[in-house]
């Protein structure tokens, strides 16, 4: 599918985050879109500030008047923002975003996570797999937000829900920076022989899925797991990092 967002007006929430920041880069450098990045504070916006054609707007996502004004003038909104300190803020935010998109007939691409299917106990997953509260705070909160989006889809919201797996790449703290630092600090021990499945996906592939979702009009209301073509083991994942330094040891148990 051809992706053409040139000169399209795009809103991105969570634009200072790992995936959001990369999405903004691709929208600017490859798609030549007109991007407005919605941020909570300017302290984390250094990565975006190097682009003089990105508009940065500090806004609370549950500020209905301001959000309606911003959504009214956009073509697509990518929602990646997540507040780990307040589920109330997350739910108020998605309510305002979804209602604003419905009011002005705008497209929403909502980024969720594979964690909504927790506990992940060696099962083969697809989008029809059961997703219910499991007691894991992050998973339950993301599921609750996703269910809000699905509720509005039934009321006419044009939206696609994407569920990335383990996303890695530059600026990723948990799945790139942390493994690299662990390996640099010495021996890393992997349980179960390191043979557990690591459903890794590169950040650029996630962004490609998001851009494709933005221009696809045939799958509104659907949700899609986003992962790499070929699942690898955790041993493979860590050994790829270890190759950067020959004296790193990975101990398998």
Search tags:
253 residues, globular, two-stranded parallel sheet, 20% strand, alpha/beta, 38% helix
- The DSSP helix count reads 8
Which whole number gives the mean pLDDT? 92
How are the strands ordered across the major sheet? Answer: 3-2-1-4-5-6-11
Tally of strands: 13
Straight-line distance between termini: 45 Å
Radius of gyration (CA) equals 19 Å
Brief summary:
With about 250 residues, the chain is an alpha/beta fold.
Please explain how this structure is put together.
- The relative contact order is 0.14.
- This protein has helices at 18-29, 46-49, 64-72, 87-103, 137-154, 173-185, 203-215, 234-242, and strands spanning 9-13, 34-39, 55-58, 76-79, 107-111, 158-164, 166-168, 188-190, 197-198, 200-202, 223-226, 232-233, 250-252.
- The chain starts with 8 loop residues before the first strand and ends with a strand.
- The chain is globular and about 55 Å long.
- The chain has 253 residues and is an alpha/beta fold.
Topology, element by element:
Layout: E1 9-13, H1 18-29, E2 34-39, H2 46-49, E3 55-58, H3 64-72, E4 76-79, H4 87-103, E5 107-111, H5 137-154, E6 158-164, E7 166-168, H6 173-185, E8 188-190, E9 197-198, E10 200-202, H7 203-215, E11 223-226, E12 232-233, H8 234-242, E13 250-252
Parallel strand pairs: 1-2, 1-4, 2-3, 4-5, 5-6, 6-11, 7-10, 8-13
Antiparallel strand pairs: 9-12
């Amino acid at each position: 599918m051809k992706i053409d967002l040139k000169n399209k007006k795009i809103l991105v929430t969570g634009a200072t985050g790992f995936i959001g920041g990369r999405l903004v880069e691709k929208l600017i450098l490859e798609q030549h879109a007109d991007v407005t990045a919605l941020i909570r504070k300017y302290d984390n916006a250094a990565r975006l500030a190097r682009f003089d054609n990105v508009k940065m707007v500090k806004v609370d996502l549950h500020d209905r008047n301001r959000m309606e004004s911003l959504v009214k003038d956009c073509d697509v909104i990518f929602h990646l923002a997540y507040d780990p300190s307040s589920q109330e803020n997350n739910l108020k935010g998605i309510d305002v975003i979804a209602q604003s998109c419905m009011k002005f007939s705008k497209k929403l691409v909502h980024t969720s996570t594979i964690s909504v299917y927790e506990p992940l106990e060696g099962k083969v997953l697809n989008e029809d797999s059961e997703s219910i509260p499991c007691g894991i705070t992050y998973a339950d909160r993301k599921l609750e937000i996703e269910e809000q989006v699905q509720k509005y889809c039934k009321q006419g919201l044009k939206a696609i829900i994407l569920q990335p797996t383990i996303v890695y790449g530059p600026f990723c703290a948990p799945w790139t920076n942390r493994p690299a630092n662990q390996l640099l600090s010495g021996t890393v021990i992997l349980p179960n022989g390191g043979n557990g499945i690591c459903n890794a996906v590169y950040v650029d592939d996630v962004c490609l899925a998001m851009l494709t979702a933005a221009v696809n009009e045939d799958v509104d209301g659907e949700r899609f797991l986003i992962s790499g073509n070929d699942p690898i083991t955790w041993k493979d994942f860590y050994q790829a990092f270890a190759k950067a330094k020959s004296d790193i040891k990975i101990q398998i148990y």
